[in-house]
Amino acid sequence: MALAIKDRVKETTTTTGTGTYTLGGAVTGFETFTANLSNSDTTYYACTDNTNFEVGIGTFTSSGTTLARTTILSSSNSNSAVNWSSGTRTIFMTYPADKAVFKDASNNINGTFVGNITGNVTGNTSGTAATVTGAAQTNITSLGTLTALTVDNVAINATTIGHTDDTDLITLADGVVTVAGELDATTLDISGNADIDGTLEADAITVDGTALATYIRGTVGTNMLSSNTESGITVTYDTTNDNIDFSVDAAQTGITSLLATDIKIGEDDQTKIDFETADTINFYAGNEKQLVLTDGALTPGTNAIVDLGTDALEFKDAYFDGTVEADAITIGGTALNTVIAGVTVTNATNSAHVLVTDNESTNEENLITFVEGATSSTGNVGLEMDGHLTYNPSSGTVTATIFKGNIDAVDGDFDGTLEADAITVNGATLNSVIADEATALAIALG
Asked: Of all helices (H) and strands (E), which one includes residue 430?
């Protein structure tokens, strides 16, 4: 967009109201705005119906050939936009008095001037900046007060000094030098502190005469790493590649706790102890869960059999809810089958015997046991008792209802009636003995 003024440009317009002018074509002997302006250019214009008038700055639009009333400089409507009624008016380019530059009677240019001056300038200049072009300006003794000045593409205004090309701009504003491009200096000596708000790039940087890389190595390697204290880890600075190397000791004696919601300990993910579930410890081997320890119970994982190989498994107490299968089981160092055989023999022996106690004083009737069966028996036989045969250890009395068979006694004391089908004395019947004793007594008594 540029401000352009051309000669003999005049058209008609029938625009009403205060809106944008629609251009209706050139007046005879004049040219159109379209022939002299580009789209979005501005120009000074005047519009009149020979009664009312309006002077301003208009913005040209090639599409539709219109001229917008951008700024009203003066008008018959108190310097405001004229509200045109119907009719035809002329609109043309003009040179407004407020925008004109001219010499006074003394050939001096007075007022505010913005633009380029070609040639020599004499006298004093004040106000806004002007560009003076010429081989030499020997007559300028004072610039007065300038709000802006450009010398060889270097712009100086009230707040900044900088290049007019924004792609290569060094600016000075409020004591701050801003470099937008590259600062090329053979030697740059900054006395005091430097604050760089952005990226500092240099081919080489030295600190107190020492290259920055060497300075950093010395600071890190000597000051930071050589005097620090580690526990269970060794930190070294490798000056050959500027790397900081961390080496964890094989034995860690300072670690007192490893607590995490999900922690794994092992050689890799195939052989590990995994605390992946609360209150449960999983043992992996061969990338398979082998054992699960939970709430005092050790159970197989995915395998149905826990194979310990040639190693021994020792339990203080063990409970197996299922089948126990082993190539060999020992109890107290003795094979299980030997223990079972010994227990079986012992139990068999105990089952063929009874525990007998000595009791000779209690005044009670105790039943007397017998081997069952009427004939002699061996092997597994039962014991039985008969309530008709008792023994009193207090009196040493055996009581029975009937005695059958021969009674051979060294001495016999019968406290009661002795009844027998036949009684012999030294092989002779009792009645024979009595008869012999009576005969002998009679003979003796004579």
From this structure: helix 430-445
> Which range of residues forms the domain containing residue 388?
366-399
CB neighbourhood size of 446 (10 A): 4
Q: Produce one character per residue of 407-443: b if its CB has 16 or more CB atoms within 10 Å, e if not.
A: eeeeeeeeeeeeeeeeeeeeeeeeeeeeeeeeeeeee
Give the per-residue SS3 of 374-416: CCCCCCCCCEEEEEEEEEECCCCEEECCCCCCCCCCCCCCCCC
Look at residue 79 and tell me if it is in a domain. Answer: yes
Nearest to residue 54, comparing CAs of 70, 42, 38? 70
Over range 134-159, report the average pLDDT. 67
What beta strand segments (E) does 332-372 contain? 334-335, 366-371
Averaged pLDDT for residues 34-39: 95
55 shares its domain with 84: yes
Do 78 and 32 fall into the same domain?
Answer: yes
pTM exceeds 0.70, yes or no: no
Rounded to 5 degrees, φ, ψ at 60 are -90, 135
* Higher-scoring residue by pLDDT: 15, 251: 15
**Which residue matches tokens 């050139």?**
26
Indicate the pLDDT class of residue 304, thresholds 50, 70 and 90.
Answer: low
**Shared-domain flag, residues 386 and 429:** no
Q: Which pLDDT value is given to residue 36?
A: 95
In a domain, 333, yes or no: no
The tally of domains found in the chain comes to: 6
Residues 6+ apart with CB under 8 A from 35: 9
Four-CA torsion 69, 73, 77, 83, nearest 10 degrees:
0
Structural domain includes residue 337: no
pLDDT of residue 290: 83
Structure tokens, 6: 């051309």
Q: Which amino acid, residue 241?
A: N
Q: Reply yes or no on whether the pLDDT at 12 is more than 80.
A: yes
What sign for the dihedral angle of Cα 138, 140, 142, 148?
negative
Do 278 and 294 lie in one domain? The reply is: yes
Lowest-confidence pick of 12-16, 49-53, 118-122, 336-340: 118-122
Please state the rounded mean pLDDT for residues 169-185. Answer: 72
Query: Is 246 in the same domain as 268?
Result: no
Phi, psi of 134 (to 5 degrees): 165, 155
End-to-end CA distance of the chain, in Å? 196
Is the model's pLDDT at 18 over the cut of 90?
yes
Say yes or no: 70 and 28 in one domain: yes
Most confident of 183-187, 203-207, 223-227: 203-207
